[in-house]
UniProtKB/TrEMBL annotation:
Primary role: Regulatory subunit of cyclin-dependent kinases that mediates activation of target kinases. Plays a role in transcriptional regulation via its role in regulating the phosphorylation of the C-terminal domain (CTD) of the large subunit of RNA polymerase II (POLR2A).
GO biological process, one term: cell division
Signal peptide: none
Family: Belongs to the cyclin family.
Biased composition (Pro residues): 250-260, 310-348
The organism of origin for this protein: Anopheles farauti
Domain Cyclin-like: 35-129, 142-229
Composition skew (Polar residues), residue ranges: 270-279
Name by which UniProt lists this protein: Cyclin-K
Cellular component per GO, a single term: nucleus
Domain Cyclin C-terminal residues, every copy: 138-272
Database matches in InterPro entries: Cyclin-like_dom, Cyclin-like_sf, Cyclin/Ssn8, Cyclin_C-dom, Cyclin_N
Length: 376
């Protein structure tokens, strides 16, 4: 199986950086793509596992390809489309494109080209080859719940701390921690961060042994405090306000469209305006999106752990024939089958009444063996 965890030097030597995209711009592109997947997943009532799987595909894809070659929003739509099938919450490609059209501005939606469905479907084959068909992804959610059940303390404070850690896991998808550390380490680090911010100190837990110096020693061995603090700092950086003179909060439209589509299917994009563009039907301007939870509050709003499944269409079941009444016992060899009909009295040999009955058909049983064939 391929190794999907990278060092800091690998994250600064990506195909995008070799293609002229600076490190901060690439971080912003990753953040925009991950948030788009989360917003689209929430709009389509997809569960957290499906959204998280799509984001992990997104981060892995751009460790092999450049943002200049493949537009981030097309790739994000393709990752969500594939994650829905992997996590058994499938959505149609046209529904994902419709959601993307509602969430994105016109200039950004132009990167989908003349045929958005063909663009996403073609990119799906490239995505599968890029991630080497390694589709199963583990997330920190299950480890977070498992570890939290072992902690002891005030139930109200513990519930608040676990909810805060769950929100931190959601926000960590906007960073690259999912391709730097295992989900067990991420779960431990974000529980540690939530315990610090909620002022809930873990002093006792189920299965505590004398050799356990910290509560996470029972779950993850040899994890250093430097690793935990590095993960916490990457998540906390999301809540820092943008500094003056820094990178713009809104990225420009990406040019040209994705190379996933054939040349005859690519759109002729003009960077000036899109009002008179013949490629996309002009719609009424969409209202600006409200500020995200990360930018609005240091602690995100309440997010439940429910995982709504995809509402499959109610296909009618064809009723089968009614089962016959089971009056007899179990079938052989567990029991003898009852006779199908009552026993009949023995039948006597019929006598044919005709003129030569006594000569050719003597009364009594039928004759024995033919004398021309002596017994052996």
């Amino acid at each position: 199986m391929p190794n999907w965890y990278y060092d800091k030097k690998d994250l600064r030597n990506t195909p995008s950086s070799r293609d002229g995209v600076d490190y901060e711009t690439e971080r912003r592109y990753r953040k925009e793509g991950a948030r788009f997947i989360m917003e689209a997943g929430a709009s389509m009532s997809l569960g957290h596992n499906t959204v998280a799987t799509g984001v992990v595909y997104f981060h892995r894809f751009y460790m092999f390809h450049s943002f200049r070659t493949f537009p981030r929003f097309v790739t994000a739509s393709c990752c969500l489309f594939l994650a829905g099938k992997v996590e058994e919450t499938p959505k149609k490609c046209k529904d994902i494109i419709k959601t993307a059209r509602a969430l994105l501005a016109d200039d950004k939606f132009q990167s989908f080209g003349d045929d958005p469905k063909e663009e996403v479907m073609t990119l799906e084959r490239i995505l599968l080859q890029t991630i080497k068909f390694d589709l199963q992804v583990e997330h920190p959610y299950s480890f977070l719940v498992k570890y939290a059940k072992c902690l002891k303390g005030d139930p109200a404070k513990l519930q608040k701390m676990v909810q805060m850690a769950w929100n931190f896991v959601n926000d960590s998808l906007s960073t690259t921690v999912s391709i730097q550390w295992e989900p067990e380490i991420i779960a431990v680090a974000l529980i540690y961060l939530a315990s610090k911010l909620s002022k809930f100190t873990v002093v006792d837990w189920v299965g505590k042994q004398p050799e356990h110096l910290k509560w996470w020693d029972m779950f993850v061995q040899d994890v250093t405090m430097e690793i935990l603090e590095e993960i916490c700092h990457q998540v906390l950086d999301l809540y820092q306000p943008a500094q003056a003179g820094s990178a713009p909060s809104d990225s420009p439209p990406q040019l040209p469209p994705s190379k996933a589509s054939p040349p005859m299917k690519r759109a002729n994009i003009s960077p000036i305006t899109n009002k008179n563009s013949p490629n996309i039907a002009v719609k009424t301007p969409l209202p600006p999106l409200p500020p995200t939870e990360i930018e609005a509050n240091p602690i995100p709003k309440h997010i439940t752990t429910e995982n709504p499944h995809y509402p499959y269409p109610p296909y009618p079941m064809h009723p089968g024939p009614p089962l016959p009444p089971q009056s007899h016992g179990p079938p052989p060899p567990y029991g003898a089958m009852p006779p199908t009909m009552p026993p009949q009295p023995p039948q006597t040999w019929p006598h044919y009444q005709h003129a030569h009955a006594n000569k050719y058909y003597p009364p009594g049983p039928p004759p024995g063996r033919n004398p021309y064939y002596p017994s052996q």
